[in-house]
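Structure (tokenized):
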């Protein structure tokens, strides 16, 4: 399981006013993964608000209506030797604010089966 939110006991910590302390969980169910909303402001999968839903590789989630957008990459964790990574897509034309201080990956989880979470 991977939990994402503002609280320091999450595996992925996001510092955003619209993100709940424990906003969303990614849970493994056999050979598949599902996303479960825990946040009061909602979680959106491919633009639709969800409570719980299966997710596939490349799924795009948004925490709250105007919150951070995250792309999920399944299976990449093994390639990255169990490390969770966060990267930002930058436009060569438009300068983007530095969000690196807004996101923290908690190193306490070292499960090579976990999906990689990428800040989209």
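Design, position by position:
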């Amino acid at each position: 399981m991977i939990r994402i939110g503002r609280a320091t006991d999450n595996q992925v910590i996001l510092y955003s006013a619209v993100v709940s302390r424990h906003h969303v969980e990614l849970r493994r169910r056999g050979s598949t993964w599902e996303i479960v909303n825990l946040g009061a402001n909602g979680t959106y999968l491919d633009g639709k608000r969800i409570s719980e839903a299966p997710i596939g590789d490349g799924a795009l989630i948004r925490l709250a209506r105007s919150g951070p957008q995250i792309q999920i990459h399944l299976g990449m964790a093994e390639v990255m030797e169990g490390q969770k990574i966060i990267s930002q897509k930058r436009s060569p034309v438009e300068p983007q604010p530095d969000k690196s201080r807004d996101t923290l990956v908690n190193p306490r989880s070292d499960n090579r089966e976990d999906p990689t979470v990428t800040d989209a």
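Reviewer-requested clarification: Helices lie at 76-79. The two ends are 21 Å apart (CA to CA).
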